[in-house]
Write a structure and sequence with these properties.
It contains 6 helices and 6 strands, in the order βααβααβαβββα. It has 186 residues and is α+β, with helices and mostly antiparallel strands. It is globular.
Length: 186
Amino acid sequence: MLAAPRSVFMEITRRDFGAVFEGEGLNDSEAPLGGIYERSDGLALFAVTLGRAVSRQITDLFDSHEYAAGAMLDSTASESAELAATSVERTFVSGLDAGFEASMSFSPGYCGWHISAQKKLFETLQPVDIGITLTDTFLMQPLKSISGVIVAGRKEIFIFDDNFEFCSTCRTRTCRDRMNAIKKQV
Protein backbone atom coordinates (compact mmCIF):
# COMPACT_ATOMS: atom_id res chain seq x y z
CA MET A 1 0.00 0.00 0.00
CA LEU A 2 1.56 3.27 -1.10
CA ALA A 3 -0.85 5.74 0.44
CA ALA A 4 -0.54 6.53 4.12
CA PRO A 5 -3.22 9.20 4.56
CA ARG A 6 -3.02 11.45 7.59
CA SER A 7 -4.81 14.62 8.55
CA VAL A 8 -4.96 17.30 11.16
CA PHE A 9 -7.39 20.15 11.75
CA MET A 10 -8.02 22.71 14.43
CA GLU A 11 -10.78 25.18 15.05
CA ILE A 12 -9.66 28.80 14.87
CA THR A 13 -11.37 32.09 15.71
CA ARG A 14 -12.03 34.72 13.08
CA ARG A 15 -9.58 37.03 14.81
CA ASP A 16 -6.79 34.45 14.86
CA PHE A 17 -7.54 33.38 11.30
CA GLY A 18 -7.17 37.01 10.20
CA ALA A 19 -3.42 36.78 10.91
CA VAL A 20 -3.17 33.47 9.01
CA PHE A 21 -5.13 34.90 6.08
CA GLU A 22 -2.95 38.02 5.99
CA GLY A 23 0.13 35.83 5.74
CA GLU A 24 3.02 37.80 4.31
CA GLY A 25 0.72 40.63 3.20
CA LEU A 26 0.70 39.57 -0.46
CA ASN A 27 -2.99 38.66 -0.92
CA ASP A 28 -4.92 40.23 -3.75
CA SER A 29 -6.99 43.09 -2.36
CA GLU A 30 -10.12 41.46 -3.82
CA ALA A 31 -9.50 37.94 -2.45
CA PRO A 32 -13.05 36.65 -1.76
CA LEU A 33 -11.96 34.73 1.33
CA GLY A 34 -11.36 38.03 3.15
CA GLY A 35 -15.06 38.87 3.15
CA ILE A 36 -16.16 35.27 3.51
CA TYR A 37 -14.32 34.34 6.68
CA GLU A 38 -15.37 37.58 8.38
CA ARG A 39 -19.03 36.48 8.05
CA SER A 40 -18.46 32.82 8.92
CA ASP A 41 -20.00 30.80 11.73
CA GLY A 42 -17.01 28.46 12.11
CA LEU A 43 -13.43 28.13 10.88
CA ALA A 44 -10.83 25.38 11.01
CA LEU A 45 -7.33 25.11 9.61
CA PHE A 46 -6.57 21.73 8.07
CA ALA A 47 -3.89 19.69 6.34
CA VAL A 48 -4.06 16.27 4.72
CA THR A 49 -1.40 14.14 3.08
CA LEU A 50 -1.15 10.80 1.35
CA GLY A 51 2.42 10.43 2.61
CA ARG A 52 5.81 10.31 0.96
CA ALA A 53 5.68 6.84 -0.63
CA VAL A 54 3.01 7.68 -3.20
CA SER A 55 4.81 10.87 -4.25
CA ARG A 56 8.08 8.95 -4.51
CA GLN A 57 6.41 6.27 -6.67
CA ILE A 58 5.01 8.91 -9.05
CA THR A 59 8.48 10.41 -9.45
CA ASP A 60 10.02 6.97 -9.98
CA LEU A 61 7.48 6.11 -12.68
CA PHE A 62 8.17 9.32 -14.60
CA ASP A 63 11.95 8.92 -14.14
CA SER A 64 11.74 5.40 -15.62
CA HIS A 65 9.71 6.75 -18.58
CA GLU A 66 6.54 4.96 -17.51
CA TYR A 67 4.53 8.06 -18.31
CA ALA A 68 1.07 6.52 -18.57
CA ALA A 69 1.37 4.75 -15.21
CA GLY A 70 2.92 7.86 -13.64
CA ALA A 71 0.15 10.08 -14.96
CA MET A 72 -2.56 7.68 -13.79
CA LEU A 73 -1.08 7.39 -10.31
CA ASP A 74 -0.57 11.16 -10.13
CA SER A 75 -4.17 11.81 -11.12
CA THR A 76 -5.53 9.18 -8.75
CA ALA A 77 -3.41 10.48 -5.87
CA SER A 78 -4.55 14.06 -6.50
CA GLU A 79 -8.19 13.01 -6.42
CA SER A 80 -7.55 10.94 -3.29
CA ALA A 81 -6.01 13.95 -1.53
CA GLU A 82 -9.08 16.02 -2.48
CA LEU A 83 -11.37 13.31 -1.10
CA ALA A 84 -9.35 13.24 2.12
CA ALA A 85 -9.72 17.02 2.44
CA THR A 86 -13.47 16.67 1.89
CA SER A 87 -13.61 14.03 4.62
CA VAL A 88 -11.83 16.37 7.06
CA GLU A 89 -14.28 19.14 6.13
CA ARG A 90 -17.24 16.85 6.85
CA THR A 91 -15.73 15.77 10.17
CA PHE A 92 -15.21 19.38 11.24
CA VAL A 93 -18.69 20.57 10.31
CA SER A 94 -20.36 17.53 11.89
CA GLY A 95 -19.00 18.71 15.23
CA LEU A 96 -20.40 22.23 14.88
CA ASP A 97 -23.62 23.36 16.48
CA ALA A 98 -26.47 23.64 14.01
CA GLY A 99 -27.00 27.05 12.49
CA PHE A 100 -24.67 27.08 9.52
CA GLU A 101 -25.98 26.19 6.08
CA ALA A 102 -22.90 25.32 4.07
CA SER A 103 -19.16 24.86 4.17
CA MET A 104 -16.29 25.32 1.76
CA SER A 105 -12.53 24.93 2.01
CA PHE A 106 -9.97 27.39 0.65
CA SER A 107 -6.24 26.90 0.14
CA PRO A 108 -3.39 29.39 -0.10
CA GLY A 109 -2.44 29.93 -3.72
CA TYR A 110 -6.04 30.11 -4.95
CA CYS A 111 -8.71 32.82 -5.28
CA GLY A 112 -6.33 35.66 -4.51
CA TRP A 113 -5.09 34.13 -1.24
CA HIS A 114 -1.33 34.29 -1.74
CA ILE A 115 0.60 31.05 -1.36
CA SER A 116 2.94 32.72 1.16
CA ALA A 117 0.10 32.44 3.70
CA GLN A 118 1.21 28.80 3.97
CA LYS A 119 3.94 30.01 6.34
CA LYS A 120 1.46 31.36 8.94
CA LEU A 121 -0.86 28.40 8.40
CA PHE A 122 1.99 25.98 9.11
CA GLU A 123 3.17 27.96 12.14
CA THR A 124 -0.33 27.77 13.59
CA LEU A 125 -1.40 24.24 12.62
CA GLN A 126 1.96 22.41 12.83
CA PRO A 127 1.28 19.78 10.11
CA VAL A 128 4.87 18.62 10.46
CA ASP A 129 3.35 16.33 13.12
CA ILE A 130 1.70 14.35 10.29
CA GLY A 131 4.75 14.49 8.02
CA ILE A 132 4.07 17.63 5.94
CA THR A 133 6.83 20.19 5.59
CA LEU A 134 7.01 23.48 3.74
CA THR A 135 9.71 24.50 1.26
CA ASP A 136 11.19 28.00 1.01
CA THR A 137 8.82 28.62 -1.90
CA PHE A 138 5.79 27.62 0.23
CA LEU A 139 5.16 24.29 -1.50
CA MET A 140 4.29 21.30 0.62
CA GLN A 141 6.24 18.08 0.82
CA PRO A 142 5.01 15.44 0.16
CA LEU A 143 3.39 16.86 -2.95
CA LYS A 144 0.13 14.97 -2.51
CA SER A 145 -0.87 17.16 0.41
CA ILE A 146 -3.50 19.88 0.81
CA SER A 147 -3.79 22.59 3.43
CA GLY A 148 -6.15 25.45 4.00
CA VAL A 149 -9.14 26.66 5.95
CA ILE A 150 -12.63 25.21 6.22
CA VAL A 151 -15.30 27.90 6.43
CA ALA A 152 -18.83 27.18 7.65
CA GLY A 153 -21.65 29.72 7.41
CA ARG A 154 -24.76 30.86 5.60
CA LYS A 155 -24.95 29.91 1.93
CA GLU A 156 -24.87 33.47 0.66
CA ILE A 157 -21.39 34.18 2.03
CA PHE A 158 -19.94 31.67 -0.44
CA ILE A 159 -21.58 33.05 -3.58
CA PHE A 160 -19.44 35.49 -5.54
CA ASP A 161 -18.79 36.38 -9.17
CA ASP A 162 -15.62 34.73 -10.38
CA ASN A 163 -14.59 37.64 -12.57
CA PHE A 164 -11.62 38.94 -10.58
CA GLU A 165 -8.37 39.66 -12.39
CA PHE A 166 -6.74 36.63 -10.75
CA CYS A 167 -9.56 34.41 -12.13
CA SER A 168 -8.15 34.90 -15.63
CA THR A 169 -5.06 32.88 -14.69
CA CYS A 170 -6.97 30.11 -12.89
CA ARG A 171 -6.77 26.83 -14.77
CA THR A 172 -9.54 25.00 -12.96
CA ARG A 173 -12.34 27.43 -12.04
CA THR A 174 -13.57 24.79 -9.58
CA CYS A 175 -15.16 27.58 -7.56
CA ARG A 176 -18.10 27.46 -9.99
CA ASP A 177 -18.79 23.80 -9.22
CA ARG A 178 -18.32 24.36 -5.50
CA MET A 179 -20.70 27.34 -5.45
CA ASN A 180 -23.30 25.38 -7.41
CA ALA A 181 -23.00 22.53 -4.89
CA ILE A 182 -23.52 24.98 -2.03
CA LYS A 183 -26.64 26.36 -3.66
CA LYS A 184 -28.01 22.79 -3.53
CA GLN A 185 -27.04 22.12 0.13
CA VAL A 186 -29.89 22.04 2.61
